[in-house]
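Support request, please re-run this one:
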Amino acid sequence: MIIDSLESLYSQATDRQVKVDLLIGLGEAYQEYDYPKALALGYDALSIAKSIAYQEGVFYAYNTISTAYNGIGPIDSAYLYNRLGLDLALEMNEPFSLAIAKNNMGIYYLNQGNYPLSLQYFQEALEHDRNTGEYVDPTGVYANIGILHEEMGDTEKAIEYYLKSADAALAFDDKASIAYAYLDYGYVDAMQGKRESAMQHYENALALYRELNHASREAETLYYIGEIHLEEGKYEQALSYQEEALAIYERIQSVEDVPSMYSIIAGIYKEMGDTQQAISYYQEAISRAKKTGLTSLLPSLFKELSLTYVAADNYRQAYEYEGMFRTWQDSFVNSATKERIAKLETTYELQVQEAENKKLNEQQEQQRVILRQRTLIAIAASLITILVFFIAIIQYRANRQKAVLNRNLEQKVKERTVALAAANQKLLESNDELERFTFIASHDLKEPLRNITSFINLIQKKLKDSTDPDLNEYMGFVVRNTRQLYGLVEDILTHSRVEANRRKTSEKVDLNLLLLDIRMGLNRTLEEKNAVVQAAELPPVLGYRSELFLLLKNLIENGLKYNESAQPTIKIDCKTKEEQLQFSVADNGIGIDPSYHDRIFEMFTRLNNRSKYQGYGIGLATCRKIVQKYKGEMWVESQEGQGSTFFFTLPKLEA
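Re-run finished. Output below.
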């Protein structure tokens, strides 16, 4: 067994780089049936690789860890290590590593239902495979693109890529590759309605995977065999195969597959007329999908559960889940997404074709250019001689006049520059004094406030046995107002610190990792409010991490605070506008009257009752101050009761 051989070699190895390679090999072997073990081995490899500065080992350790997290969750952790792997691959600029990293990113976005971004990463992975200078196995990438097209409903494209995957697998003369090819041929026959042939291919694959002890592939093949039985109306056989597949996925803790399997088994029970069992399995599928972050599964699960409740004559629950389905479906695939997929696919195919014809076209064009150049050179030589003579005369006269004007202009510029420099210096000094005064004043206010709070606490302790209700009510007013004043002082300090960063060196900030930190910090609030934060892939920017963190955090917190919907939703996006990046933060909250769109960015401006919504009217003023510091603009688009979208611009990072 390969695992026994690798463990024996590892126990004998003394070179730490060799140990890293063996740990990664063991991790890849355990991925087939024991994700937690694979994860532990990946972390061991990462620790050693970092200690010896072994870049390639660090990359493959990231790959092992991300694959394990894809299996057992959380999905955000899988994304984090996929992202770290991609950043390192870009730094190494090694095509094979780039192909692996981008295929991993494609799988992540495929699971999230972001098909255009997923397809882009898969196509880039194929391009890196071609740039390695040697044959690299593209089997998995072809199969992933086939899955993407199948989910999008494009059967013809899906079959094309499954056949490419099978042909690539057969180029390797080993049992695992042959089994993979059997699976691909089974997919194609099943999609074309050839059930008997598909079943034969699946059974061949199942025998090989059981021989190889590839648990995850064995479960996948059992699922496809169960699907054939289901299509033939053999419900008991279908249920038996799908439950066996689910048991394997549960055993190896493959959390990305478990929700789908519960949904499939629920569908079989529904076909058999057992609605109670179907409802139970659909609810478990929804629970597992939420826990693992596989939100792309939720719309279809809500819809199926709603239809099952209809079949069970429970129309109240059916209506509730139909509403959940409608809420979620707009976040995923629509007709515009399909058009973008088709456009990406067409663009990719055209690029491949153009690359093949480019050399011939360039050779023909070079011949035509040479002939034209020889003719034009002869004509141009004569014209240039004549023009140079006249230009020399005109230039001489112009230079004499320009010299006189320049001397007068330089004198005026010197005088005005001196005056402007003096004015600017005075303005800078005034601004610095004002910033220092605000900071010192706010800071000094905190000390007496702390003293007041301390003495109030002492008074409350002495009066804890008091039966005078008025006195307790007055003390409550004092405590609340003291806390409000303390919070106000804290916000003023935050506002004044924004300008302090101008003397520090800015840095490249990854907004995706920054957003991940914000989500973690707001995790409790998100769970309490049943809130969702959705974000597109954000570009890096040049700036100060603390300020950008405060900017996004304030906007997200406002979207959650001023929100009375059953599921507050925050959507973050970015578009390129010429030399700037335009960011948007949209929410489904209470909205803002258009007459207040400018006032809300002024300090101490509040539109709502403090007893209902906490705050001091400084957060948005601080956000606009941060944006203006980067020479950007900030504005809002909103109507009362229709949510709000805050826009701001930042400079685009130069390549």
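The chain has 23 helices and seven strands. The mean pLDDT is 82.
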